[in-house]
Amino acid sequence: MDLSAIATNVRSIKTLVGPGVRLMAVVKANAYGHGAVPVARAALGAGAEWLGVALPEEGTALRAAGVTAPILVFGPTPPFQAEEVVAGGLDQMVHSVSFAEALSRAAKKRRRRVGVHLKVDTGMGRVGVPVEEVSRLAKALAGLPGLLMRGAMTHFAAADAPDLAHARGQLRRFHEALASPPLDAAPSLLRHAANSAATFALPEARLDLVRIGIALYGCPPSQGAAPPIPLRPALSLTTRIAQVRWVGPGATISYGCTFVAPTRMRIATLPVGYGDGFPRALSNRGAVLVRGKRAPVVGRVCMDMVMVDVTGIPEVEEGEPVTLLGTQGTETVSTEAWAAWAETISYEILCGLGARVPRECVGEEAAARTKADRPRPAVRRRHRRRAP
Question: What CATH number belongs to 3-216?
Fold first, then answer.
């Protein structure tokens, strides 16, 4: 993980949106497989003001690591976790009165206030209240002790589509919701709607804050459309060749015998598989980089191993480095290429990287930790006995 790339992407997006718009770095799902704590620190150090997570556990893990920045929990948190939200000093998306009441009880119990962000469903069809119910929920939230109405939010369903008509309709409905009492009487309310795609393609949706996820990690949010600013991929994935051997014509490779050698071939076995996040969908269709050249995947991807054809790459030996994602020489295998081969999206590729894959952070921000984010050591108190 190149944390300098994370920092560069944050700074570039901050410049794009201007000084009046805050930036939330979305670090849910272990920062899309990159590592939540180091990514959060790098993003905050580069100018991000907020962090976004899906679960209270993700937020409290950041707090345990010493991160003090505001953190918003996006997910529909169950009421039994209300105390965890309050105890962690987290903000919470709210879409129902019943959950708001659970948060209020937890806040009163701990004598704290918890920030809430009212979620409006403007056309995503997933979670939130419809526009016509916003006023009712907002009034209920305003009347519950311990709750601080901090924000109002919505989420776009198709801001990455070539046709932005649906996204513009959602934005129009969101503005209708913001005109509902008592939201319209809250001048300090943080209004936010734009994900990475909308931040780039729909400038009018940036409002007070943008929620940057996939672009933070250097991947374009819209397939086939280049972002308006250059993005630096933050992740590369490498391994080393475990075995190299010749096979004769007619030899079969891997489970199901789906690949039959048409001629004499040199096959390299790599100690990585779908248990690590190398998609099984890349069987007989993906490629890796060996000595700066593409080596096609042959046979089915196994849980722990994958085989590649190195016949056209002379003198390849066991122990040589292999680039699975990233650049080697003049060739690059991108996350978007994996997604195209696997017929999915780059989000799934990144989030699928397994926990057993060792992560190493590089870049100038790798070792940087602000004083505010450094965990405080436990204080040992010595009790002296008084002289009689």
Answer: 3.20.20.10
